[in-house]
Structure formats: structure tokens, C-alpha cells
């Protein structure tokens, strides 16, 4: 349900947000991290209102971040969702700081990050750097992302 909700929501469909809200309600008793990730997914697709997205991601971090720990995938996803919403609100420096923390922590998970369908945090970091006029560093990130995608998908794949 969570993956379907994220997929629908990322395409701008309100059914996705509704589905993710339902999943959050179903998981509220679960402190294993699923509810934290689902709340983060919901925060990411709150494209219309970054304030609501920030509140939801902050709630996920406050509610589960200490329990799960700073290196848990759910915590990282919630922090990434908060950083994305902060970026949409124009708070680029704080967004950049949070993206850097998430990118650093994500390196411990390797390919598991992609297999879980988590957002591509290095791309988001590069985008925030561009918004701040840090083109040289952003270019370095985009180059690294391109090389990683080339290795994973090959030269003919649409993502490359």
C-alpha cells in the first residue's frame, strides 16, 4: 500500500496521499520504522503545501528518530523529506545541511537504498547547491551521479 501510495502521489494523484494517510494510521502502533518511512513518503508528495510536508516530516523525526536512531532508513528518509520540503520553502542552507547528513549516512547502505525505492538524495543535494549558486560543487555531484548510473544501468538505459 505504501509503495502504491508513493507512486500515485509522486504523479500528482490525490489518491496516493489518501492511501499513504491510511497506511500511517494502520502503522501507528509499529515502532519498527515502517510508519516513519510512510510518513516521510507522505511528506515528500505534499507538493502543494511544503508547510504540511515539513510538519509531517518533523513529526516523523520527532516521534521515531530517537527510537530508531539517526542511521535507520526510516529516520534518513524522514530527514530527506524534511530537507526537500525546506528546499521548496526556500530554506536552502538548512536543506543543504540535512541533505549532506543523509548522503553521508546513506553511503553505509550502498545499493540497498535504491532497492528500497528511496529518493535520490545526492540529486536533491546537487539541486539545492544549484539554487544557491554553487555550480562547481553541484557539477561534481552530477558527474558522480552520472557515473554511478552509467555503472548500474549501462550507456543505453533511459536513466543514464
What report would you give on this structure?
This protein has 160 residues and is mostly helical. It has a single domain (2-153), classed as Alpha Horseshoe (Serine Threonine Protein Phosphatase 5, Tetratricopeptide repeat). Helices cover 74% and strands 0% of the residues. It has nine helices and no strands. Helix 1 runs antiparallel to helix 2, helix 3 (34-44) packs parallel to helix 5 and helix 4 runs antiparallel to helix 5 (73-88). The longest helix has 19 residues, at 50-68.
Gist?
With 160 residues, the chain is an all-alpha fold. Helices cover 74% and strands 0% of the residues. It is built from nine helices and no strands.
Question: What's the arrangement of secondary structure elements?
Answer:
Layout: H1 2-10, H2 14-27, H3 34-44, H4 50-68, H5 73-88, H6 92-106, H7 112-115, H8 121-131, H9 135-153
| Whole-number mean pLDDT | 77
Main β-sheet, in a few words? none
Strand content: under 5%
* CATH fold naming: Serine Threonine Protein Phosphatase 5, Tetratricopeptide repeat
The class by helix and strand makeup works out as mainly alpha
Q: How does CATH name the architecture?
A: Alpha Horseshoe
CATH superfamily name?
A: Tetratricopeptide repeat domain
> What percent of residues adopt helix (DSSP H or I)?
over 70%
Count of helix runs: 9
State the total count of DSSP E strands: 0
Radius of gyration from CA coordinates: 15 Å
Q: What form results from the Cα inertia axes?
A: globular
What number of domains?
A: 1
Task: Give the CA-CA distance, first to last residue.
Answer: 29 Å
Give the uncertain stretches in residue-range form: none
Series of H and E elements: HHHHHHHHH
Amino acid at each position: 500500500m505504501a509503495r502504491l501510495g508513493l507512486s500515485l502521489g509522486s504523479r500528482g494523484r490525490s489518491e496516493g496521499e489518501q492511501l499513504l494517510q491510511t497506511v500511517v494510521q494502520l502503522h501507528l502502533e509499529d515502532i519498527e520504522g515502517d510508519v516513519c518511512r510512510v510518513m516521510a513518503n507522505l511528506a515528500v508528495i505534499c507538493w502543494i503545501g511544503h508547510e504540511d510536508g515539513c510538519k509531517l516530516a518533523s513529526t516523523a523525526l520527532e516521534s521515531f528518530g530517537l527510537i530508531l536512531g539517526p542511521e535507520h532508513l526510516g529516520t534518513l528518509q524522514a530527514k530527506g523529506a524534511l530537507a526537500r520540503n525546506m528546499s521548496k520553502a526556500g530554506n536552502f542552507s538548512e536543506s543543504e545541511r540535512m541533505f549532506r547528513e543523509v548522503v553521508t549516512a546513506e553511503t553505509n547502505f550502498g545499493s540497498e537504498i535504491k532497492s528500497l525505492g528511496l529518493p535520490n538524495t545526492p540529486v536533491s543535494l546537487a539541486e539545492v547547491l544549484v539554487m544557491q549558486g554553487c555550480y562547481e560543487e553541484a557539477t561534481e555531484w552530477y558527474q558522480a551521479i552520472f557515473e554511478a548510473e552509467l555503472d548500474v544501468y549501462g550507456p543505453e538505459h533511459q536513466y543514464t
